[in-house]
Design goal:
804 residues; mainly beta; 22-stranded antiparallel beta barrel; 39 strands
């Protein structure tokens, strides 16, 4: 087996990390802690605990995030961070990460490229793909799966580049799920919920203390359900999460957490966009001057563009299923986490976290593609068909990591410091097998007639080519060693300065097994002929030293408020999100080319935060400018270079907490101006993006949820979500746009409501009504606009909650 080696160019930045230097840095930081109380903490303590009346309504408002890297409460943190607590998303009957993220503006979901349908939590935030920046308890969570929140205490959304916090990542920020863990408060909670589309779900959360220092916690979930108004689609899961804690009231605390989740069901390949508002096809309207008709699926002969001009095709039934009952999506996610915390003194805590995680996904999905209009019967809609493709994903992701964090407070020369330093060692890998028909396939054309489906009346009885491993695969891995430090300097009661620095070395390798499609001659002497079908191996490697940093200044005009200015950076090296570097030296340059510089994200933000109404209500506002550089852009000479740039200017508002006794609210508004400031500048006739708007990025998004709890046990709640229209493409030239089926996704407004009533002190009944006006809307489309996911229709859930 021959191999091709590609190595990134030499870098001038030296390797910055060694185990010895990292350990010395931690010891040095620890020795700086003084015995007396630091000035920075005279009026506050690290990780202070608020005691509240247990009979009071749990608040939507959070005062801090779970990460030990943050030294300050949210009000004094110079960054937009939205925290969605379980009290809020449980009231909404939200069970997945995607549903929970509806409580913050500026986030949309992706559907995938033309030939593939995205799976799981495909998040697009503040103009950038954020799917690779999802974390659980501060550790990257790999795999394109749908994450359930049954074991989640709160979801933390940090907006803007955060290279100091987590290393390589998107310019948009990251999402962190903070897990439930054992504590000394005995409690038993759970629910049983039934809903439309055969929805059935049950959860149990039991926490039990053992003596004065130890406790155990068990969370269970089981769900079997269809999807409202989506024929055949199923989503089922079962999971368990356990946490055992030792020494919880002492100086040394140990947590052992185990998580296991299984998902199964029939995935959704989407619905054709034919006939929707904004739909375009050349057969109904002539293309702009210079355009050419797209080649339809063989063996049909393309009718002339405009042959049905003036005809408005009927939209298909949004419940149509174009897949196969043999489609599947089987997921196994497992992780073991061990956390050890030790208080060196009153103001200094050392924390070590270790995790091994493994996620397996085996999926076969039938995607919806181009439409076919038979020439002989083009005027008869009953003969129109849609092409379907069998897509497969057979993937295993693994992560092994050890993180050490030291959090301390001390004085130097009369100035207070609150410092968090740490070292991280991470190993991540992905095995991805290519799925397709066996090669060579004796039945390659045996079922072609059954690949296309009738547009308006698709059959689920069609047979498809089997989807199996074809022998080719990609194995990628990334190793990371990093050191970080974050310090908040208290100058006086009104002014705080903060600075963070992260030094990181990464190494990514990709090993690819390919099948040669044509005969090639080697350069050996004498030359040897490699016949088609021969398996070949290719290898590529990228290595770099990354430096990320952030600065912030906080002014406190009064104790309950802050005004801040911050600047932060992040870097995203090639192949670091999908482990798939380019291994073919003849391939065109793209974001996975091993020899290009990392993408660089920056964020400049000016904001203010206020704790109002006896610190029960949080008000925030921020204006920001986020930029991502070194993206791939095509130049006028046709070459691709890492010179592209995207920029998002915007403002975001938030209101969260208790207004009066019993009345709570969560509001978010984001106004964005997303633009590709330097994109493709190629000649006429190609896909130009320079000056275009960033796809999947609505200019306005708004979310509101409010509830009122009456004294006699009734709670009424409701909310509204608005998402402005958005583009599925950043193309700027009319000819390229005209090749797209759905260029713009219309805006939509969704109203939800909920009511709960306490039957007894321990039992309550909860009713959730979703999309109560039954708004028809497009949740998302694929890049070409040929297929879409219908938005969730009017539906209902009725649950029985218990707590002891």
């Amino acid at each position: 087996m021959s191999k091709l080696y590609i190595r990134s160019k030499p870098l001038t930045c030296p390797r910055l990390l060694t185990p010895g230097s990292l350990s010395s840095a931690l010891v040095l930081a620890s020795s700086m802690a003084f015995a007396q109380e630091p000035a920075a903490l005279k009026d506050k303590k690290l990780d202070a605990v608020k005691v509240q009346d247990t009979a009071a309504e749990p608040s939507y408002k959070a005062d801090k995030v779970s990460s030990p890297k943050f030294t300050q409460p949210l009000i004094d943190t110079p960054q937009t961070i939205v925290v969605v607590k379980k009290e809020l998303f449980e009231q909404q009957a939200a069970t997945t990460l995607s549903e929970t993220l509806r409580n913050t503006p500026g986030i949309t979901m992706l559907m995938g490229e033309n030939g593939n349908t995205a799976t799981g939590d495909s998040i697009f935030m503040r103009g950038f793909d954020t799917q690779g920046s999802i974390f659980v308890d501060g550790i990257r969570d790999l795999g394109s799966i749908t994450r359930d929140v049954f074991n989640t205490e709160q979801v933390e959304i940090a907006k803007g580049p955060a290279g100091v916090d987590n290393g390589r990542g998107a310019a948009s920020g990251y999402v962190n799920l903070s897990s439930k863990r054992a504590n000394l408060e005995d409690a038993k909670n759970g629910n049983i919920t039934l809903g439309t589309a055969s929805y059935k779900r049950g959860t149990i959360d039991i926490n039990q203390s053992f003596g004065k220092d130890s406790a155990g916690r068990v969370n269970l979930v089981k769900q079997d359900s269809g999807i409202d108004e989506r024929d055949e689609v199923e989503y089922n899961l079962q999971g368990v999460a356990t946490s055992v804690g030792f020494g919880l009231s002492g100086k040394t605390r140990t947590f052992i957490n185990l998580f296991a989740l299984q998902q199964s069901g029939i995935p959704d390949g989407g619905v054709t966009t034919l006939g929707l508002d904004g739909y375009y096809n050349a057969i109904f309207d002539a293309r702009p001057s210079g355009g050419t008709a797209a080649t339809p699926t063989a063996p049909a002969v393309p009718p002339a563009p405009g042959v049905l001009a003036g005809t408005r095709p009927q939209a298909v039934d949004s419940s149509n299923f174009y897949g196969s009952r043999s489609d599947k999506n089987d997921v196994n996610a497992n992780m073991l986490t061990v956390i050890i915390e030790h208080d060196l003194d009153e103001h200094t805590t050392l924390r070590n976290s270790s995790r091994y995680g493994r996620t397996e996904q085996d999926q076969v999905l039938t995607g919806v593609n181009a439409l076919t209009f038979p020439t002989a019967t083009v005027t008869n809609p009953d003969t129109w068909t849609v092409a379907r493709s069998r897509q497969g994903k057979d993937q295993v992701n693994e992560i092994l990591t050890n993180q050490t964090n030291l959090k301390t407070a001390f004085d130097t020369w009369g100035l207070g410091h609150e410092l968090a330093t740490g070292i991280e060692f991470v190993y991540e890998s992905q095995d991805s097998w290519t799925l397709g028909t066996p090669w060579p396939s004796a039945t390659a054309t045996a079922r072609v007639a059954q690949v296309n489906a009738n547009v308006y009346n698709p059959s689920q009885a069609d047979e498809f080519q089997p989807v199996v491993r074809d022998g080719t695969k990609i194995y990628g891995q990334t190793t990371t060693q990093a050191f970080y430090g974050l310090d908040t300097l208290t100058l006086n009661p009104q002014w705080e300065l903060s600075a963070g620095l992260r030094l990181e070395h990464f190494n990514t390798t990709t090993d690819r097994v390919i099948r040669q499609s044509t005969a090639i001659s080697t350069t050996s002497t004498p030359p040897q002929l490699i016949p088609p079908g021969t398996m070949l191996g290719q290898t590529a490697e990228a290595s770099d030293d990354l430096v990320s940093w952030k600065l912030g200044a906080v002014f406190k005009p009064v104790e309950i408020a802050s005004v801040y200015l911050s600047y932060a950076t992040s870097q995203l090296p090639p192949g670091s999100t999908n482990f798939q570097l380019i291994t073919d030296p003849t391939a065109a340059i793209n974001a996975n080319s091993p020899n290009i510089d990392p993408q660089k994200g920056t964020n400049l933000e000016l904001g203010t935060k206020w704790n109002l109404l006896d610190e029960k209500l949080s008000l925030s506002a921020a204006v920001f400018k986020s930029t991502n550089e070194n993206e791939i852009a095509t130049q006028p000479d046709g070459t691709s270079q890492a010179v592209g740039e995207r920029e998002v200017n915007g403002v975001e508002f938030g209101l969260n907490g208790i207004i009066t006794q019993g009345w709570q609210i969560n509001v978010g508004l984001a106004l964005m101006d997303p633009e590709i400031t330097r994109g493709n500048r190629a000649s006429t006739g190609t896909a130009q993006t320079d000056g275009g708007s960033i796809q999947w990025s609505p200019e306005k998004t708004f979310t509101l949820w409010t509830s009122y709890a009456f004294d006699f046990g009734l709670t009424l709640a409701g909310g509204v979500r608005y998402v402005d229209s958005m583009l599925s493409s950043s193309l700027t030239n009319a000819e390229a746009q005209s090749h797209r089926s759905m260029l713009e996704i219309p805006d939509y407004t969704i109203f939800d409501a909920a009511a709960s009533y306490k039957l007894t002190p321990n039992l309550s009944l909860q009713l959730n009504l979703l999309n109560i006006t039954d708004e028809d809307y497009i949740a998302t489309v694929n890049n070409a606009g040929s297929r879409y996911y219908p938005g969730a229709p009017q539906s209902a859930k009725l649950g029985l909650n218990f707590t002891y």
